[in-house]
Amino acid sequence: MDRFLVPYFLDPMVVQKIERHTRNELRVLLLAKVILKKMQLNFSRQTLAQLDKVCLDRGFSAQMQINEISSVAIRELFNREFNNTLDNEIIFQAWQYAYSLGLCPVDNFMGH
Q1: DSSP alpha helices (H): ranges in the chain?
Q2: pLDDT in tens, 18-35
Q3: Which residue has the higher pLDDT, 89 or 110?
């Protein structure tokens, strides 16, 4: 093995932890997208804008999660029922990410 390449090889345990973290982040991202889609289908723009405003004013908290939307998102994405002990952390992270993206859709079209 070339001694100049040694610093670029990672320990297999480190690679495994990186892969586990990446898979978890992907699950959070996909779950947040499903949550956003369900929220936009079920609530008016005014309600979503009010939720965004509350999140901006007070910051995100677990009280801002809607359990029914969480259950439907878990069922749609993972094809299983919501399990409180398994899904609490990923649901919290997904809702936090969804609120950071903004629930209310915004038209970015600019006319010239």
Answers
A1: 12-42, 45-58, 67-78, 84-101
A2: 899 999 999 999 999 999
A3: 89
The predicted model scores a pTM of 0.82
- The torsion region of residue 109 among left (phi > 0), alpha (psi -120 to 50) and beta comes to beta
Give the model's pLDDT for residue 13: 87
pLDDT tens for residues 33-61? 999 999 999 999 999 999 999 998 999 98
Alpha-carbon distance of 25 to 13, in angstroms, equals 18
From residue 6, how far is each of 1, 2, 3, 9, 18 by CA, in Å?
8, 7, 5, 6, 19
Nearest to 32 by CA among 82, 79, 69: 69
Of the candidates 95, 99, 74, 97, the residue with the CA atom closest to the CA atom of residue 84: 74
Residue appearing with tokens 């997904």 = 94
Q: What is the dihedral of CA 100, 19, 23, 79, to 10 degrees?
A: -170
Domain extents in the chain: 15-101
